[in-house]
Write a structure and sequence with these properties.
alpha+beta; Butyryl-CoA Dehydrogenase, subunit A, domain 2; Butyryl-CoA Dehydrogenase, subunit A, domain 3; 2 domains; four-stranded mixed β-sheet; 19 helices; 14 strands
Length: 492
């Protein structure tokens, strides 16, 4: 089959029933017609359609054995391959202004890397190495959309999972039988879970490695239609309003959901790791999945920073505030964010090298820096939008008001220096949806914790960063010009 189009994505979602709950009700009928999901599904479909658009087809796909596949499945062997993947990733990210953080290329990048590092999984069981290879081929062939989950419920973070008052809350293996393993419990959190084809259940990276942690140590993948698998969604931030009123929330509300495993049977051919905490903890870094995932994420970061820069500059031009130095300073902050993320990408690709799995791997140091900086940068970029728009972000009547008898007053009193009232409202409602709405707040929270607890991440970053050369340089300066021990002894 290879690269699919948007309608094929929608048809598969509607054809394969899944257990999804939202607002106290189970989703019945075609999920692509449900108010909470139909708009983001349409946006996802538009991404898949780019793979067949004559203007973007070659940018988004590659051909192998006369079959066309999405570029996110391309195994990079050269720097040119990395650039090709990056171009496709950026194209998808630009479509949503970076507001969709879990487009299919994110997990495809991880799966691609893991499939090439199959020997890592084979350390646990030779069959698991074959399983991850076969799964990559299956997902690539059908161009599936995959969500993932790896965080246990926040019950008592002062205790390990096995030491909880109820150790059965977190997803764990309760049985192994000839057909596979049975999983029971819950996981946080699956973004796009209800609208994906399958879910990869990754291991947490903080397993203790004791005998009692074995039930929580696993890596598997299953279809979202698997019996016993349930998604419990948060409130939707797509309120059914028009694209004028909610230009972002009405298009790109990805949805986050708690994942419940009610004695879910995972067939043996979908098991990649089992009861091996050491391999589970090191999975993402050892296979270089984290590096390739971060390569994709930084393209999303660039798209997001560029989009906010576009909003900010549009506000500046609309209401004529570009002459103020504090405004110029704020815009320069966003420009710095854009160019910093671009520089990290260029450095990572320039210093890329073939890894032990034969994959051209971007240099980790700049990508690692990028993933630490952006969670701190993004809230500030949003704050700048708030500061530039100020009270204008509250003076935003709806599309219904524009179509009402009070339209003449709106046209008179809400006009901008360089925009008529309707266009000013359209812009400021976009700025509001990017900086102040529920959708916007979720985006800030999402970026803050994209890769996990930022404090723990900072600790790992500090403890793993090679500081040897810097220490030696300081030591050399401190003792520069002093006689060597040999010279001192000879003098005596």
């Amino acid at each position: 089959m290879g690269a699919r189009n948007g309608q094929e994505y929608i048809d598969r979602l509607n054809r394969e029933a899944r257990d999804v709950w939202i607002g106290g009700e189970r989703v019945e009928g075609p999920i692509a017609e449900h108010p909470a999901f139909k708009n983001v599904i349409a946006s996802m479909a538009a991404l898949y359609d780019m793979q067949h658009d004559p203007e973007t087809e070659d940018e988004m796909t590659f051909v192998e054995d006369d079959v066309r596949y999405g570029n996110s499945f391309l195994v990079p062997r050269t720097r040119a391959d990395l650039a090709r993947r990056r171009t496709a990733m950026k194209r998808w990210a630009d479509y949503s202004g970076g507001m969709m953080g879990r487009t299919p290329d994110y997990m495809n990048s991880a799966l691609m890397a893991m499939s090439q590092a199959a020997d890592y999984f084979a350390q646990d069981n030779p069959a698991y190495g074959e399983n991850i290879r076969a799964y990559y081929q299956y997902v690539r062939e059908h161009d599936l959309s995959i969500t993932h989950t790896l965080i246990n419920p926040q019950v008592n973070r002062s205790l390990s999972t096995a030491k909880q008052a109820n150790p059965h809350v977190a997803a764990h293996v309760v049985e192994k039988n000839p057909r596979g393993v049975v999983i029971r419990g819950a996981r946080l959190l699956a973004t796009q879970g209800p609208i994906a084809d399958e879910i990869m259940v990754f291991p947490s990276t903080v397993l203790k490695g004791t005998e009692e942690d074995n039930p929580y140590s696993f890596a598997v993948a299953i279809p979202n239609s698997t019996p016993g698998l349930r998604y419990i969604c948060r409130e939707t931030f797509d309120y059914g309003k028009s694209h004028f009123d909610h230009p972002l929330g009405s298009r790109f509300e990805e949805m986050d959901a708690v994942v419940v495993f009610d004695d879910v049977l995972v067939p043996w051919d979908r098991v990649f790791l089992l009861e091996n905490a050491h391999l589970c903890n090191n999975l993402h870094m050892a296979t270089h999945a984290t590096i390739h995932m971060t390569h994709q994420v930084v393209q999303k970061n660039i798209a997001k920073a560029e989009f906010l820069l576009g909003i900010a500059e549009s506000i500046v031009q609309a209401i004529g505030i570009g002459q103020f130095q504090h405004v110029q300073e704020k815009l320069s902050e966003i420009i710095l964010a854009v160019e910093t993320m671009k520089a990290f990408t260029k450095a990572a690709e320039a210093d890329a090298a073939v890894d032990e799995w034969g994959v051209m791997c971007p240099d980790w140091a700049p990508l690692n820096a990028a993933r630490h900086i952006f969670p701190k940068t993004y809230p500030r970029l949003v704050e700048i939008i708030q500061q530039l728009g100020a009270s204008g972000l509250m003076a935003i009547p709806s599309e219904a008001d524009l179509e009402s008898p009070i339209r003449p007053q709106i046209d008179e009193y809400l006009v901008a220096r360089n925009l008529p009232a309707a266009d000013r409202l359209r812009l400021f409602r976009l700025a509001w949806d990017a900086s102040l709405s529920a959708f916007a707040s979720r985006q800030v929270l999402y970026e803050r914790f994209f890769f996990g607890d930022p404090v723990r991440m900072a600790g790992v970053y500090y403890n793993t960063y090679d500081k040897t050369a810097m220490l030696a340089r300081v030591e050399e300066l401190l003792h520069r010009g002093e006689p060597t021990p040999r010279a001192t002894m000879e003098a005596k």
